[in-house]
Amino acid sequence: MSTKLIEELRNIEGSVEEYKVKLGNFIKNVKNTLILTYSGSGIIPSNVAYWYLKILKPSISTSMYSVDEFIYHIAPYMRNKAVVLGIFGEGQENNAIRFRDVCVSLGLNYLIITPVLDRRVIARIRSNNLLIINTSNYLLYVSLLFAKAITELAEEKEVLRVKRLLSEVSDFGSVVNELYNEYKNAINEVVDAVKSIDEVMLTYTPTMLSPAYLLFYEIRARGLGISIVNATSALQVVQSLTKSNLGLIVFSTDVESHVINEILFKARTRGCRVIDIRLKTDPLTAPIYGLFLSKIIIDSLGR
């Protein structure tokens, strides 16, 4: 399964440059404030972009909202004109048009990233404000696009951490086999749990939102029982554990152990089958590597 992902990553590496230039130029023109807006599964690459911008472009004030939050609560009350980046998942054409109309009416500088659209929708959105990504791996593709483009725009390229990140983003595929070998048991446990347990719950720490949601959307699309809960509040998650015959998949990083240790303890005492996927890497690359693990799990599940 890791071989398939490596091939997919090679294909992405071979075609991402054109999009990276356009996205990079858009971000370069941000002077003060950038608002990320997402709809549907667009939350997955949007969250990757948010953390990369926060850490590598601290001179830009970056915030992230759903399209409804932006349209109804943020846009009408903005005192200064922000630059707005809209990231849309499959089937979100109407929201993309709503987003575009609000940006145009307020005179905002905006860019829309979306999968393939109907030509009638494209006609509503000017081509210079539209980045259409035509690929079967849209969510992974756009997440990697953000990681690559923003890392290359990092403000402190001489810092050792940034140098290492620049090296990693240039060849993400090189880590896949090592990643698979390290987490092979967890991958197999997730596949078995999803297939054999009536209800599985996903929970995640802030860093790992993107891989958790990718797995959630794909498992749900297969008609299998799954729910997702943010793990920031341990009490919220534990209170959701009303059944002992429950699979609990936890996505986290080792620096966020304090967030999940109580969840793991209480879930196990309630008889839940717990699968702890804890990445031991930089918080910036952790969600990317988590996406790779989710993709391998999804491929292992089949259709």
Describe the 3D structure.
The structure is a single chain. The two termini are 14 Å apart. Helix content is 54%, strand content 17%. With 303 residues, the protein is of the alpha/beta class. The chain folds into 2 domains: 2-170, 3-Layer(aba) Sandwich (Rossmann fold); 173-301, Glucose-6-phosphate isomerase like protein, domain 1 (Rossmann fold, 3-Layer(aba) Sandwich), CATH 3.40.50.10490. The model has no long low-confidence stretch (mean pLDDT 90). The strands form 2 sheets. Strands 2-1-3-4-5 form a 5-stranded parallel β-sheet, with helices on both faces.
Summarize the structure.
With 303 residues, the protein is α/β, with parallel strands linked by helices. It is globular.
Q: Distance between the terminal alpha carbons, to the nearest Å?
A: 14 Å
Radius of gyration: 19 Å
Average of per-residue pLDDT values: 90
Q: CATH top level of the largest domain?
A: Alpha Beta
Number of domains: 2
Largest beta-sheet characterization: 5 strands, parallel
Tell me the CATH topology of the largest domain. Answer: Rossmann fold
User: Level of helix content?
Assistant: 40-55%
Query: What is the 3D shape?
Result: globular
Strand order of the largest sheet: 2-1-3-4-5
The name of the CATH architecture of the largest domain is 3-Layer(aba) Sandwich
Uncertain segments are none
Task: State the helix count.
Answer: 12
Strand content: 15-25%
